[in-house]
From TrEMBL:
One of its GO terms (cellular component) is desmosome. It comes from Setophaga kirtlandii (Kirtland's warbler). PANTHER family: P53 APOPTOSIS EFFECTOR RELATED TO PMP22 A, P53-INDUCED PROTEIN RELATED. It comes from the Eukaryota. InterPro entries: P53_induced (IPR015664), PMP22/EMP/MP20/Claudin (IPR004031). This is p53 apoptosis effector related to PMP-22. Belongs to the TMEM47 family.
Length: 189
């Protein structure tokens, strides 16, 4: 990307594209039912960020209870949701920043800083949830944190990594804009 500059059409949209993938992963984590599930038979427990559902050992109907009745449930949902909203804002700002012909590199560095703030909020929600869930809710059998919880962590890791990319990109401003005089390694005989 640095070799061809951000005017190279295939490279210009890589960072906003990765942010868009992070937004999709965040939506999957917010809407997914696989935050916590029973690992072995009988499958009696299933939880999302928003509610927990239990079923008796003999099967039957699922009985669901909202996690918003717990202070820690509201805190986990709120902090993860704030991190997700900041990610969506960064995605919109990145599209605006890379759509403008003249890049504003300080603007890009600000997006990186906002991504770090989003990562902090996301990680707070992802830590509060399992710690308080396992200590305050009675669980039977063997349970595991599952696929939707993994998508939440993937989103947080993407926020951190993309934050580094957005913050470091202005360091190569001259190379990206083509303002550096080429160096030739030629020696005469």
């Amino acid at each position: 990307m640095v070799k061809y500059g951000l005017d190279y059409t295939r490279c210009r949209w890589i960072l906003p594209l990765l942010l868009g993938i992070g937004v999709i992963f965040g939506i999957i984590a917010l809407a997914g039912w696989g935050w916590l599930e029973s690992q072995t038979l009988p499958y009696v427990l299933q939880a999302s960020l928003w509610q927990i559902c239990r079923r008796g050992d003999q099967g039957g109907e699922w009985n669901c209870e909202s996690l918003m009745g717990y202070a820690w449930g509201r805190a986990a949902a709120a902090t993860y949701l704030v991190g997700f909203l900041l990610l969506v804002i960064c995605f919109a700002l990145a599209i605006i920043a890379f759509a403008i012909d003249t890049l504003r590199f300080n603007f890009i560095r600000g997006i990186g800083g906002l991504l770090f703030v989003a990562a902090v909020f996301s990680i707070m929600g992802l830590v509060i949830y399992p710690v308080k869930f396992s200590s305050e809710i009675e669980m039977t059998g063997i349970n595991m944190f599952s696929w939707a919880y993994g998508f939440g962590w993937t989103t947080a890791i993407m926020e951190i990594c993309l934050g580094f990319f957005f913050c470091c990109l202005p360091n190569y401003e001259d190379q990206i804009l083509g303002n550096v005089k080429p160096t030739y390694f030629y020696s005469s005989p």
